[in-house]
Amino acid sequence: MTVVKSDIEIARHAAKKPVVEIGAKIGIPPEHLAPYGYDKAKLSAEFIRSKRGDRNGKLILVTAVSPTPAGEGKTTTTVGLGDGLNRVGKKAIVCIREASLGPCFGTKGGAAGGGYAQVIPMEDINLHFTGDFHAITAAHNLLAAMIDNHVYWGNELNLDTRRITWRRVMDMNDRALRDIATSLGGVANGFPRESGFDITVASEVMAILCLATDLADLEQRLGEIIIGYRFNKTPVYARDLQADKAMAVLLKDAMQPNLVQTLENNPAFVHGGPFANIAHGCNSVVATTTALKLADYVVTEAGFGADLGAEKFFDIKCRKAGLKPAAAVIVATVRAMKMHGGIAREDLGRENISAVKAGCANLGRHMENVRQFGVPVVVAINHFTADTQGEIDALKAFVAAHGAEAVLCRHWAEGSAGIEELAHKVVALAESGSGQFSPLYEDELPLFDKIETIVKRIYRGAEADADSSVRDQLRQWEDAGYGNLPVCMAKTQYSFSTNPHLRGAPVNHVVHVREVRLAAGAGFVVAICGEIMTMPGLPKSPSAERIHLNEDGLIEGLF
C-alpha cells in the first residue's frame, strides 16, 4: 500500500535553497533583499523602481470553477504551472496571495498549494509569515483609535458618531465581534456608539496595499479613506485626522513583496491577501508588476471561481494597473463537476459520467465569462486518484465542444513533470496573440448599472435588486465624484446566485444588494449581496482543534 504524505510532510522535507540564490535566478542582487531568516525575504523599493522601464513578460491568470467541498486546487495548479513553465525552459515567477489566519484555523486551510506543487516555507506562509497582516491590522486599528480619540477630545471635525463607517478588524474568524458597542463604562471611556469588526482581509487598508504602486501612492490612498460623515453629511477623510502618514509608517515594510520559493526552487512572490468573496481577491499590484519585469511569464491566481476572483482581477486590478493578461487557465476537477451535477460528497468516489456532464454547465459558464473579457482560455483538469477515464473523457469532450482544450494535470503527485503539457499549451496560447483584453464595463457607466451588468452578464441573473436607500447612496456618491469607480461584489463563492446551495449554472435569479460601502482610498465601491458576512465565523469543529505541536516541536494538523 502506497503511503501518501501530507502537504506539511512534503514541505518539511523540501530541499530549500537560500533565498538570495532564488533572487539571483531572476536578477535580484542580494543587497536588495531583506532576509527574514534563511528562506524568505522582502524586496527593496529601490530595486522595484529601477526595473520600471524594463519590458513586461506575459501575464497568465489561473482561476477556477465555483468552489465545492470536493476541492479544486487552484493555488496548487498556479504553483505547479509556474514550475512547469520553468521546466519547459521559460523564466517564470509565481505571484499568489498570503494566507489569512481566519480560514487557516477555521475550515478552508492554508493557501500555499499542496502535494508536490507548493510554495515554502509552508508553515510560515500559512501563519505569521513576515508580519504583513499584523501591520495591516495595526494600521487599520490605529485609524479606528484616532477616530474615537478625536471625538473624545471635542470632535472638532463635527463627526456624526451615528455615521462613523470605519470599523475595526482582526485576522481571525469571530462572529461575536460582528456587531459591538464601544466606549462603554462612563465619561473616561468616551462616547458610546455601535460598531463592529471585519476580518483583516476585508479591510480597505488591505485593498489599498494591494492596489498601491509605491509608498507615495499608498500614503495618498490612505488619506482618501472616508471614515464617516459630519452632521451636514459631508465626508470626513483619514487625512482630516492626520492619520495617513502614521498608517503609512506602519505599512512601510508590509508594502514590499515577499520572495519565497516553490518545492522545485523556483521564485514566487507571496504578497497581500484580500478575500475574493468580500474584497477584490488578488495579490498586490506591486508584486505582479515587478514580477512582469523579471520573467518571461508570471502566473497569478484570483480567488474562488471566475465569477468572483477573475471578474475582479479583470475589472479592478487590471483596469487600475493597466495589466493585459495573455491567457487564463480555468481549474476544474472531476469531483467538482460531479458535485455541481448534484452528487453528494460521500458518493464522489463512484464513477458517474452523467453527473460530470451535468456539472460541466458550471465550467462552461466560467469559460464563457472569461472570454467576455477577450482573454483566451485553457482548462486544467486537476487530477484525483479516484477519477476514471470515462469521467475525464467526458470533461474533455465538453471543453472541446466549447472551443477550448482541457489538459489532465498531475502536478499534485508529480510536480512540474505532471503539468508539462499544460505549460506548453499556455505558452502556445499566450504567444498566439489571440487575446484582446478589455474590462466588462466602461468607467462612465452609473454605479448601479455596473452592478447590474455583472449580475446579468457574469451571474446570468434576471436583475440586481436593492432598496431605495442603497440606490440613493450610490447616486450621492456619483454626485460626489465617485461614479467612475469600479464595483467589487461581495457575495457567496459557492454559487452564481446569492444562495450558496444553488450549484451548477442557475439563471434568472435575483441578486439582492443589501448594503454598499465606499472604499475611496482603494478606488472601488463594495456591493454586499445576500447573506455574505465581512466577518466569518468558525465552524462547529474548527481546524484549530486539530493543530498542535508534536514532541519534536513541529506543527501538526495544519493540513
Automatic annotation (TrEMBL):
Its EC number is 6.3.4.3. It is an enzyme of class 6 (ligase). It comes from the Bacteria. This is Formate--tetrahydrofolate ligase. It catalyses: (6S)-5,6,7,8-tetrahydrofolate + formate + ATP = (6R)-10-formyltetrahydrofolate + ADP + phosphate. GO terms for biological process: tetrahydrofolate interconversion. Keywords: ATP-binding, Ligase, Nucleotide-binding, One-carbon metabolism. Pathway: One-carbon metabolism; tetrahydrofolate interconversion. InterPro entries: Formate_THF_ligase, Formate_THF_ligase_CS, P-loop_NTPase. ATP binds at T68, P69, A70, G71, E72, G73, K74, T75. GO terms for molecular function: ATP binding; formate-tetrahydrofolate ligase activity. Pfam families: FTHFS. It comes from Phyllobacterium pellucidum. Belongs to the formate--tetrahydrofolate ligase family.
